[in-house]
Structure formats: structure tokens, C-alpha cells
């Protein structure tokens, strides 16, 4: 099985999620440091929707100026535009496998798709 994680190595939850994936036998992991390799807008929209979230629910508020800039009050398309142009606004980690996509907070949520 292949697993793709959109990862921020500075994030403890992201590191713990990656460790779970790496410790799972038979899983080949692709790590995308999304702050260095940003999402395309289409991919971002897809993983958020596949995880069962709205763009507003996927906003990273802590450590960003998202609330000051009014992102949570914007419509979904505007939020996606902002996230695509500034990946720091995307909460993490997201993991995608053939079994689906999960927003892995807490990190054990990844087990649902491994």
C-alpha cells in the first residue's frame, strides 16, 4: 500500500503520524513537505473534501494570521484560493491511501486508512 502524507516536520502531530505510517508493515510512504512543495488548488480541494471537511474546517489558525485576515468567514472558494497561495493556512497532517483521506488529528486517525 502507498500512503502520501502532507507533512510539516516542525509539527509534533505530523511527526507522530509519519512515525505510525513508517512503522506499519507493507506501507510505502511518500512525504510531501507542503510548505516547500505547495498543494495545487485542485489537489487541496480534493483532499479536504475526501477527508469529509469543509475548507473552513481545514484552516490552520494557530501560528497564522488566518483569523485576523478573515479566512474563516470567507466562502469556500476564497478559502481554497488563500490556502493554495499560502500553504501555512492549511492545517495538518493530511494522509491519503487507497482507502481514503484523513485529517490526522489526533495522529491515530491514520490507522483508519492503513
Structure, described:
- There is one protein chain.
- With 114 residues, the protein is an alpha+beta fold.
- It has one domain (2-112): Glutaredoxin (3-Layer(aba) Sandwich).
- Helices cover 28% and strands 18% of the residues.
- It has 3 helices and 4 strands.
- The chain has helices spanning 12-23, 41-50, 76-85, and strands at 2-7, 28-33, 94-97, 100-103.
- The chain has a 4-stranded mixed β-sheet, sandwiched between helices.
- The chain is globular.
- The N and C termini lie close together (8 Å).
- 32% of the residues are buried.
- The model has no long low-confidence stretch (mean pLDDT 97).
List the helices and strands and how they pair.
Blueprint: E1 2-7, H1 12-23, E2 28-33, H2 41-50, H3 76-85, E3 94-97, E4 100-103
What does this entry show, briefly?
Its EC number is 1.20.4.1. The chain is 28% helix and 18% strand.
> What is the general shape?
globular
**How much helical structure, as a percent, in the residues?**
25-40%
Number of helices: 3
Instruction: Tell me how many strands there are.
Output: 4
The CATH superfamily bears the name: Glutaredoxin
CATH topology: Glutaredoxin
What integer is the average pLDDT? 97
Helix and strand composition category: alpha+beta
Count of folded domains = 1
**End-to-end gap:** 8 Å
Unreliable stretches covering 5 or more consecutive residues: none
Amino acid at each position: 500500500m502507498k500512503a502520501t502524507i502532507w507533512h510539516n516536520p516542525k509539527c509534533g502531530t505530523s511527526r507522530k503520524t509519519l512515525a505510525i505510517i513508517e512503522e506499519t508493515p507493507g506501507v510505502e510512504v511518500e512525504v510531501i513537505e507542503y510548505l516547500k512543495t505547495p498543494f495545487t488548488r485542485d489537489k487541496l480541494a480534493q483532499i479536504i473534501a475526501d477527508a469529509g471537511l469543509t475548507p473552513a474546517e481545514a484552516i490552520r489558525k494557530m501560528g497564522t494570521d488566518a483569523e485576523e485576515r478573515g479566512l474563516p468567514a470567507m466562502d469556500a472558494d476564497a478559502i481554497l484560493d488563500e490556502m493554495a497561495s499560502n500553504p501555512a493556512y492549511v492545517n495538518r497532517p493530511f494522509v491519503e491511501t487507497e482507502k481514503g483521506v484523513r485529517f490526522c488529528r489526533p495522529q491515530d486517525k491514520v490507522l483508519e486508512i492503513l
